[in-house]
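Weekly modeling sync, notes
Attendees: AB, CL, MP (scribe)

Item 1: holo prediction request
CL wants a bound-state model with uracil before deciding which constructs to order. AB pointed out that an apo prediction alone won't tell us much about the pocket. Agreed to run with the ligand included and paste results into these notes for async review.

Input as submitted:
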Amino acid sequence: MERIDKILSSGGTMSRKEAGLAVRKGRVMVNGALVRSASEKINPDTDQIMLDGAPFLYHKVLWLMLNKPAGVLSAARDPKQKTVLDLVPEELRRKGLFPAGRLDKDTTGLLILTNDGEAAHHMLAPKSHVTKRYRARLDAPLPSDAKERFAKGIVLSDFTTLPSKLKILEEENQPLCEVEIHEGKFHQIKRMFLALGCTVIQLSRIAIGSLELDPLLKSGECRQMTEEEVGLVFREPK
Ligand code: URA
């Protein structure tokens, strides 16, 4: 059960305040009866809502957090290969969900699926600079100036990356690092390390904005995000 004003404003065509006003003006009916209070709770999946005499189509905004396994495509559908949508429970599949951003087929970790096109666009827009944190295992030791080069921006053949943060967790022959970037170009992390002479042999995304991958989510599992978690995506990590 959800508040009628929340349901009416979920489609993005009216604000919560406008929805409340529409109720007070007698423009909203549920199952043939006039709704008198914006706080009235109804079931949007079974109750019939009319706004100004026309059926109101409820578009529930969904946000899912997925722990992407290797070997699965970050796409809504593909004629031949398994996609991340194949990992979503059946009852959530036909809700217009799509992956908000891409991970390479062999990359694992945090992937967000949503049907909120506007918010996803905001999250992915280059000018938003939403921070993404990755953990990478490398095939060879890093040069001694690696951190400084990441901090300055790595020069690639077609662009120079924005300044990024490199943390070295294990230094042995196959180092383990954490990297924070503020953009998301094709193969960006792999290309940044390659520019320093190292190949990424394992890559996993562990955070987007201030949202961290839920450690209880097993590889291949997904779950709906809370409103608070959606907010964390758009908050800069400390
Ligand atoms: N950078 C990469 O190289 N690959 C990914 O999947 C994500 C970021």
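Recorded for review: The two ends are 36 Å apart (CA to CA).
Action items: CL to compare against the apo run; MP to circulate these notes.
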